[in-house]
């Protein structure tokens, strides 16, 4: 009973925290109509441009490398949901920790009475950062209306499972490389965004029919293939049972490695201290 | 502290068993990369302009490559066996010239760094191990940065803090009313942080820091860059919350003028070592009340007995005087009789001089 109230209180508190960040996000979007219109327009443009090329190719040629055009659309939608969700959660640069380190912003985090994990995950941007997520969900809906196979009852669960695995892969890769920033904060300030954006740009290429020497690296050392293409294959029932769990296993291993190196870097940072407080070091 | 003569006895009424801040032989060293400058050639035929630039040429290509294989690292001991205690309810100034180790101490106390050796505690807690529990009761403000949300009105940062620190409604409201009134924040409250002047921003930051009723506050150079009025306002405010709310305050500064106004007790560090711990009056007894003043004349040198002339340039004469020897009234009397004076300015002697004086007394005893 006591434990239950404690957990309940913890959850309520977490939502309270999400609430204040969400409110601040809304306030920053709606401060004036012109500003709001610009932000929304920019979002729409960048969303369309991120998928239009691949989609038009798939449409024109009736599919790419063995994937139908709506399967390609499904893949693009899946990728947008992955990145869209992470962007929405990334209000406090949680997806780009090397920025926090490089700008000296961790010094703000030290003095906040919340665990770092909570601090990093409550900074949501539901109003200014959710366009990609919403467009992804819309595209997924359109693509699914064209899928011919009937889906088993557990399919939605599988979708969520794969989405989580993909998000963990991106986040873990970002944290793994960001741990370098503890040692060279100036040079590595943008390493997280470089890693994330390069994976994001590569995620939209349908890898079906690609030679093995391209496909395998993209599923292992540079796992952009796990951000959309491979999970799409899984969700469309084109993989074996073991392959269905490959992204999750990979995500687990990568996040263990990331946690290890990030902690190590963090200890180094607290021991050595960095004397860096850049112009971008204030709260954003 | 190896010399007793330097240590003024700290008032007994400070509870020593349960100090608000406790540092025991804290040492903190940093490693720093270094690079040698290449010595200039011995070529005497070099034109004089080059010679005037000194005998060093800067960092050569060769040197830039060499350090890949053999780094030049230097250990900087920012703090060297520093021990001190601050009792609950005290207002202590932590003074020292630039690079003395003040910010390092503040970062250690707020858990941003770990000491190389020694132990630290604030309110009986370890700043690193008990970080979360401590931060609910501690206030930290570094003058060179802001805790305000840049792109939001000040009140938004306040509301954010209320939620993040989980401040009860009545505590928040009481503190909000208090800081709004005492810091004159009526208008600032609704302004975006990025549009505030430095003085206004500092006031907003101070207000933000106090919302959760911290028992101890650490301030690193909060007066840096503020004009005289803003400084006064800040110092008065700090004194008030110290007296009325009993908040323990540890504040750093390298400016003797500010320090004197602020605290009764002063901890002075120089080169990472504690060189003085005691009252201001005690410091006065050792170093005197050294003051610098400049006098602008029509060119004539004023005759001022008891004052030491430090230099002269274009009719601007700089003097040093010990106001504990020559009271300010007498000094003004002398000045009013001197001829040709057009203007003058008085300023406390820089902290470096006070420390040099301390060392001198140290040697001669
Ligand atoms: N992260 C760091 N790496 C290397 N040296 C540092 C670092 N932080 C501080 N120092 C050095 O430690 C000394 C004390 O610095 P600091 O505490 O900032 O002085 P203060 O605040 O009194 O001006 C200085 O010599 C400074 O250069
Ligand atoms: Mg400093």
Number of helices of chain A: 12
Q: What is the number of E strands of chain A?
A: 0
Distance between the termini of chain A: 41 Å
Give the helices and strands of chain A as they follow along the chain: HHHHHHHHHHHH
> Measured on Cα atoms, how large is the radius of gyration of chain B?
24 Å
Q: What structural category do the secondary elements of chain B indicate?
A: alpha/beta
Q: Uncertain runs of chain B with pLDDT below 50, 5 residues or more?
A: 1-15, 42-52
What is the count of structural domains of chain A?
1
Residue-averaged pLDDT of chain B:
84
Helix content of chain A: 55-70%
Short overview:
Chain A has 284 residues and is mainly α. Chain A is built from twelve helices and no strands.
Characterization of the model:
The complex is a heterodimer of chains A (284) and B (365). In chain A, 68% of the residues lie in helices and 0% in strands. By secondary structure, chain A is mostly helical. Chain A has one domain. In chain A, helix 2 (33-60) runs antiparallel to helix 3 and helix 3 (69-89) packs antiparallel against helix 7. The longest helix of chain A is centred in the C-terminal third of the chain and has 32 residues, at 241-272. Chain A is globular and about 55 Å long. The mean pLDDT of chain A is 87. Chain B is an alpha/beta fold. Chain B has three domains: 6-27 and 79-283, Rossmann fold; 34-75, no CATH class; 289-363, Alpha-Beta Plaits, CATH 3.30.70. Chain B has twelve helices and 13 strands. Chain B has helices at residues 48-52, 61-69, 102-109, 131-135, 154-164, 169-182, 198-210, 228-244, 256-262, 280-287, 328-337, 351-364; strands spanning 21-34, 72-86, 91-95, 117-122, 138-142, 216-220, 248-253, 265-270, 273-279, 290-297, 308-313, 316-322, 341-348. In chain B, strands 5-6-7-3-8-9 form a six-stranded mixed sheet, sandwiched between helices. Chain B is globular. The two termini of chain B are 15 Å apart. Residues 1-15 and 42-52 of chain B have low confidence and may be disordered. Chains A and B meet through helix 1, helix 5 and helix 12 of A and helix 4, strand 5 and helix 5 of B. Adenosine-5'-diphosphate sits between chains B (30, 32, 76, 78, 96, 98-104) and A (273-275).
């Amino acid at each position: 009973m006591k434990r239950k109230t404690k957990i309940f209180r913890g959850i309520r508190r977490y939502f309270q925290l999400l609430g204040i960040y969400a409110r601040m996000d809304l306030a920053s979007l709606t401060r004036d109509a012109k500003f709001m219109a610009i932000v929304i327009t920019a979002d729409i443009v960048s969303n369309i441009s991120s998928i239009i090329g691949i989609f038009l190719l798939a449409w024109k040629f009736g599919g790419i490398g063995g994937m139908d055009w709506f399967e390609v659309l499904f893949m693009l939608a899946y990728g947008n949901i992955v990145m869209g969700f992470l962007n929405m959660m990334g209000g406090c640069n949680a997806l780009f920790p090397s920025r926090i380190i490089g700008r000296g912003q961790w010094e703000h985090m030290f003095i906040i009475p919340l665990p770092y994990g909570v601090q990093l995950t409550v900074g949501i941007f539901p109003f200014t950062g959710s366009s990609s997520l919403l467009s992804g969900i819309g595209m997924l809906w359109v693509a699914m209306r064209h899928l011919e196979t009937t889906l088993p009852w557990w399919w939605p669960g599988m979708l969520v499972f794969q989405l989580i695995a993909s998000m963990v892969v991106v986040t873990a890769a970002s944290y793994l490389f960001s741990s370098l920033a503890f040692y060279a904060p100036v040079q590595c300030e943008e390493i997280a965004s470089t890693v994330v954006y390069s994976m994001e740009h590569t995620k939209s290429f349908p890898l079906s029919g690609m030679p093995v020497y391209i496909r395998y690296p993209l599923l292992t050392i540079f796992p952009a293939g796990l951000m959309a293409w491979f999970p799409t294959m899984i969700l469309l029932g084109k993989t074996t049972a073991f392959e269905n769990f490959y992204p999750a296993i990979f995500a687990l291993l990568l996040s263990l490695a990331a946690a290890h190196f990030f902690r190590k870097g963090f200890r180094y940072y607290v021991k050595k201290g960095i004397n860096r407080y850049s112009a971008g070091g204030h709260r954003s | 502290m190896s010399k007793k003569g330097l240590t003024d006895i700290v008032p007994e009424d400070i509870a020593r068993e349960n100090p608000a801040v406790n540092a025991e032989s804290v040492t903190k060293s940093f490693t720093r990369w270094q690079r040698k400058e290449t010595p200039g050639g011995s070529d005497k035929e070099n034109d004089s302009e080059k010679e005037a630039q000194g005998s060093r040429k800067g960092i050569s290509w060769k040197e830039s490559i060499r350090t890949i294989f053999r780094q030049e690292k230097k250990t900087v001991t920012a703090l060297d066996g520093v021990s001190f205690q601050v009792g609950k309810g005290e207002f202590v100034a932590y003074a020292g010239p630039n690079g003395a180790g003040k910010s390092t101490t503040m970062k250690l106390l707020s858990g941003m760094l770990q000491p190389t050796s020694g132990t630290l505690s604030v309110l009986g807690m370890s700043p690193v191990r008990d970080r979360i529990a401590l931060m609910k009761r501690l206030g930290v403000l570094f003058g060179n940065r802001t805790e305000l949300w840049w792109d939001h009105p000040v009140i938004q940062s306040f509301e954010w803090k209320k939620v993040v620190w989980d401040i009860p409604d009545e505590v928040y409201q009481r503190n909000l009313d208090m800081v709004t009134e005492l810091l004159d924040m009526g208008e600032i409250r609704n302004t975006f942080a990025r549009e505030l002047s430095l003085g206004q921003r500092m006031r907003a930051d101070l207000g933000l820091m106090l919302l959760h009723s911290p028992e101890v506050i650490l301030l690193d150079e909060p007066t840096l860059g503020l004009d005289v009025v803003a400084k006064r306002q800040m110092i008065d405010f700090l004194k008030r919350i110290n007296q009325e709310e009993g908040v323990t305050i540890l504040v750093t500064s390298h400016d003797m003028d500010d320090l004197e106004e602020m605290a009764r007790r002063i901890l002075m560090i120089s080169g990472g070592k504690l060189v003085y711990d005691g009252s201001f009056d005690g410091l006065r007894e050792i170093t005197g009340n050294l003051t610098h003043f400049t006098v602008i004349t029509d060119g004539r040198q004023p005759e001022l007995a008891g004052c030491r002339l430090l230099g002269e340039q274009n009719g601007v004469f700089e003097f040093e005087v010990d106001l504990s020897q020559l009271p300010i009234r007498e000094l003004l009397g002398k000045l009013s009789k001197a001829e040709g004076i057009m203007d003058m300015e008085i300023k406390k002697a820089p902290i470096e001089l006070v420390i040099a004086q301390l060392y001198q007394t140290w040697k001669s005893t």
